[in-house]
Automatic annotation (TrEMBL), chain B:
It is a multi-pass membrane protein. The chain crosses the membrane at residues 94-111, 123-147, 153-172, 184-202, 222-241. InterPro entries: CPA3_antiporter_subunitB, MnhB, MrpA_C/MbhE. Belongs to the CPA3 antiporters (TC 2.A.63) subunit B family. Residues 62-106 form the MrpA C-terminal/MbhE domain. One of its GO terms (cellular component) is plasma membrane. This is Membrane bound protein complex subunit mbxF. It is found in: Cell membrane.
C-alpha cells in the first residue's frame, strides 16, 4: 500500500505542477481534475470513504465541469 | 412596500431579536470553566464523549443488526455527527451553498441578453445515446447514496452532487432539455422547510433544536436512525437542486 500511495502522490504532484504550467487552460483544468481524483483515492486509502465520495463527486466531477463552462463563457466563445 | 416584503422584514426582525437575546444569556457560575492551553481536561468535553461512546451508545458493545434503541441508531459515524449531533452546522453549510448558488444566479442573469446555450447544436450521437442510458442509472445511484446515508459511506451531499452531475450531463447532451426555474425553487424550498420543520418539531417536543425525536430502531436496518434518514433526504434534495441551479445558470448564461 505505501508503494501505491507514493506512486499516486507522485502523479498528483506532477499533475498539480502541470496544472500550473500548461499554456492551454483546458489542459490545466483537466490536470486539476486529476489532482482531485487522486486525492479522492488517497482519502479512500486513509479510511475516509465519505470524504472520498464528496471529493470524487464535487472536486473531480462538478468543479471540473464548472471550470470548463466558465472557460467557454469567458474566452473561447468570444474569440471564435 | 408590498405586504409580503413587510411580513418578511417583521419575521427577520423577530428572529434577529431572539438571536440577540440568546447571546445575552450568561451561564451560571461554575457551569463553564476554560482552562489554560494544555491543561484542559478532555474527559469532560463533548467531543471526547462522542469518540469514546462507540458512536451509537455509551461504551457498551454495539452488535450489527441486533442492538436497538441507541442514542443515534446510525451505523455510520460520520452520518451520526453530520445529521444528528451537529445537524445545526449542516443547516449552516446548506445555507452557505444556497447563498453561493443565489449569488452565481444573480451575477450570471445580470446580462442575459440573448439566449446562448453552451451546446446550441445537436450533441454527437454517442454522447446523446450514452447519456440516455446513463441518466436514470445516475439518478438511481444518487438516490441509493442518500437513502443509505446512515448505513454506508455517503449521504445527502454526495447523493445530491451525483444527481446534479446527472442533470449536467443531460443538459450537455440534449439542448432542448430544460428544467423549469419554478421546479428547482419548489424542490429546494420544500427540502429546506422539511429540514427546519423537523428541527422546530424537535424543539417543541424534546426541548432542543433538531433533536432526534423518532425511535432509532435497530442498527444496520434501512428504517433506523430516527430523523437522520429524513434529514439526509431533505439535504440531498436541497443540495441537488442548488448544484443543478449553479450548473443551469452557467450553461444558460
Amino acid at each position: 500500500m505505501p508503494l501505491i500511495s507514493s506512486f499516486l502522490i507522485l502523479i498528483m504532484i506532477i499533475a498539480a505542477l502541470a496544472a500550473l504550467f500548461f499554456d492551454n487552460l483546458l489542459n490545466s483544468i483537466i490536470a486539476a481534475g486529476l489532482v482531485s481524483l487522486i486525492a479522492s483515492v488517497l482519502f479512500y486509502f486513509l479510511k475516509a470513504p465519505d470524504v472520498a465520495m464528496t471529493e470524487a463527486a464535487i472536486g473531480a466531477g462538478l468543479t471540473t465541469a464548472i471550470f470548463v463552462l466558465a472557460l467557454y463563457k469567458t474566452e473561447r466563445g468570444k474569440s471564435e | 412596500m408590498k405586504f409580503r416584503n413587510f411580513l418578511a422584514l417583521i419575521i427577520v426582525a423577530v428572529f434577529a431579536f431572539i438571536i440577540f437575546q440568546a447571546f445575552t444569556i450568561v451561564p451560571a457560575a461554575g457551569e463553564i470553566t476554560i482552562n489554560k492551553f494544555g491543561q484542559a481536561d478532555l474527559s469532560n468535553r463533548t467531543a471526547s464523549r462522542y469518540i469514546n461512546k462507540n458512536v451509537n451508545s455509551d461504551s457498551k458493545k454495539v452488535i450489527y443488526k441486533e442492538s436497538s434503541n441507541l442514542e443515534s441508531g446510525s451505523a455510520n459515524i460520520v452520518t451520526s455527527v453530520v445529521a444528528n449531533y451537529r445537524s445545526f452546522d449542516t443547516l449552516g453549510e446548506i445555507t452557505v451553498l444556497f447563498l453561493a448558488a443565489a449569488g452565481i444566479a444573480i451575477v450570471l442573469n445580470l446580462e442575459k441578453s440573448e439566449k446562448s446555450r453552451f451546446a446550441a447544436k445537436e450533441a454527437s450521437l454517442i454522447l446523446n445515446t450514452g447519456i440516455k442510458i446513463i441518466f436514470p442509472l445516475l439518478l438511481l445511484a444518487g438516490a441509493y447514496i442518500f437513502i443509505h446515508g446512515h448505513l454506508s459511506p455517503g449521504g445527502g451531499f454526495q447523493g445530491g452532487a451525483v444527481i446534479a452531475t446527472a442533470f449536467l450531463l443531460k443538459m450537455l447532451a440534449d439542448y432542448k432539455f430544460e428544467i423549469k426555474e419554478k421546479s428547482i425553487t419548489l424542490v429546494e424550498s420544500a427540502a429546506g422547510i422539511v429540514f427546519v420543520g423537523l428541527g422546530l418539531y424537535g424543539l417543541i417536543t424534546r426541548g432542543s433544536f433538531l433533536e432526534n425525536f423518532l425511535a432509532t430502531g435497530t442498527v444496520g436496518e434501512l428504517f433506523s436512525g430516527g430523523t437522520i434518514a429524513v434529514i439526509y433526504t431533505a439535504i440531498a434534495f436541497k443540495v441537488g437542486a442548488e448544484l443543478t441551479n449553479i450548473v443551469k445558470s452557467l450553461i444558460e448564461a
